[in-house]
Structure to design on (210 residues):
């Protein structure tokens, strides 16, 4: 029997978020930027976002890919362990994933200077809605490369995540899974609020040029 079942649900939920937060606070982008020996600061170079895409562009492709994999893993692995080994419920596992996204956005170990959490959210989705994410990984790049030529590396992750959430409705997962997917997605939207707002503000000028 899961010992957490005998504890107060609110306390258990908080502990799950904290555990996920501590895992999510590990920022691989600045770590790999330093290990690369190139003297690149992901906080001041490129788009100044300490994430996989910026690491890919400013530090190196291999470092960027590795950053993306580990940023996703810091959510996926704790969720997998808590579910398969510790026997946590769907909500408890989902809260760990949400905590990881929050940790990436406000990392404890890096002065609370974090990123947007796209790769970390992919780790959450890889556990909660793997089939939807897999389909999106195949379809989203085709759509992006067919209609866009600029900022492709930025558009692909957001399109994959958005499409995964939409496809979730077709697969009809449990209410618990849906709520965790939506909550984690909202966290990433919050951390992406600045670029989203900049895009919205730029729409009139984009239309005017056509």
């Amino acid at each position: 029997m899961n010992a957490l079942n005998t504890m107060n649900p609110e306390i258990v939920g908080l502990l799950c978020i904290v555990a996920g937060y501590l895992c999510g606070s590990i920022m691989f982008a600045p770590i790999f930027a330093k290990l690369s020996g190139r003297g690149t600061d992901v906080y001041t170079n490129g788009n100044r976002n300490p994430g996989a895409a910026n690491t890919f562009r400013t530090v190196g492709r291999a470092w960027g890919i590795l950053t993306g994999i580990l940023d996703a893993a810091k959510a996926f692995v704790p969720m997998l362990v808590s579910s398969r080994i510790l026997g946590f419920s769907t909500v408890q596992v989902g809260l760990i994933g949400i905590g990881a996204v929050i940790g990436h956005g406000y990392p404890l170990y890096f002065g609370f200077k974090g990123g947007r959490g796209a790769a970390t959210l992919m780790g959450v989705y890889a556990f909660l809605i793997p089939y939807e994410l897999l389909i999106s990984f195949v379809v989203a790049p085709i759509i992006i490369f067919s209609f866009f030529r600029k900022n492709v590396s930025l558009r692909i992750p957001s399109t994959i995540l958005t499409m995964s959430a939409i496809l979730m409705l077709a697969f009809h997962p449990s209410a618990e899974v849906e709520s965790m997917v939506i909550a984690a997605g909202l966290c990433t939207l919050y951390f992406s609020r600045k670029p989203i707002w900049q895009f919205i503000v730029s729409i009139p000028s984009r239309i005017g040029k056509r």
Remarks:
- Residues 7-198 form one domain.
- The radius of gyration is 18 Å.
